[in-house]
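Reviewer has doubts. Consider these tokens.
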Amino acid sequence: MRQWLLVRLGRAVVAAWGIASLVFLVSRVLPVSPEQLALIEMEDLSRQIGPATSNEVAASQQAVRQRLGLAAPLFYATRTTGPAGEWHWHGLHNQYHEWLSQVVRGNLGKSYLDGQPVTALLGQALAYSVPLAAGAASLATTLALALALYLARGSGSAGRTLVQASLATLQVVPLFLLALILLLLLANPAVINLMPLASHGPAPNLLVAAGRWAVRAALPLLSLVLAVLPALTLPLVASLRQESSTPYATTARAKGLPLGRVLRRHLLPNALLPLFTTLTDLLPTLVAGTVVVEVVFALPGSGRLLAEAAAAHDYPVVVAGVLLLAGVRLLSLIAADILYFLADPRLRPAT
């Protein structure tokens, strides 16, 4: 088991490195490169100050390339343009090797916009996003289990029909539309203003700061929970109803066990097996969902940071965000396999 886990983790690291490397190399060859953006800003500034000589322009261009780390060749080997292009080997003195060396040391570079370290920017943003995603995952999983056990007890009652229809409706509503609806209904002085979006003034202590964060995160949290709740609940209900028709469930009911106990103690453990993949997909889904809710509700989290970095062509932040998302996705797949092995010994790798 330990060897299998190490192999899977190694594959995940290689896959994350490949994805981040591809994004890094593509960001350097895009039509709008960071160098071009900086040069455009420099040309606008020079027009305001006055015309510059060709030597001054060349020196400014070289300074921009040095500041952005673009003076060295892009890769270990590059090919010259033209019909008779030739390959040139540059050795370790290239942009990719420098970037990879810094990533191994935990340095993800500096932002093109303000020069701040990318790790510091991500750390500040994750302080908002991680509690939001973790809280949404916990609440959605707990509500999904409770609703699935309630709906699996039978069908036809008005309450169960209403809950089933509500879940089916939520399943087809996009997250951004759901967030906007909650924003207009619950944080609008013209309708209902139960949940203010912001708190003013510094917090006197940690408890007050946590309370203000909870107030501001209530609507984003509710949006994420409602967005993933149908995908967790409806498959679990179908699995519970399928398990309820098996012989062992019929035997348990024939012995006089209450339906609730049969569902919780006997049917639920087996019904959860097909749902493990959906449960582990919950984390990447929530990480992607934070991009939407943080932009809609103006939260300074990682989703908003990556959205603004992509719009501003701040490629060091974008590459770091892609590396983070790839790592979360790959680790969630490993977690799914581990849950399957723990729940069903027949699936465990042979020792």
In short: The mean pLDDT is 79.
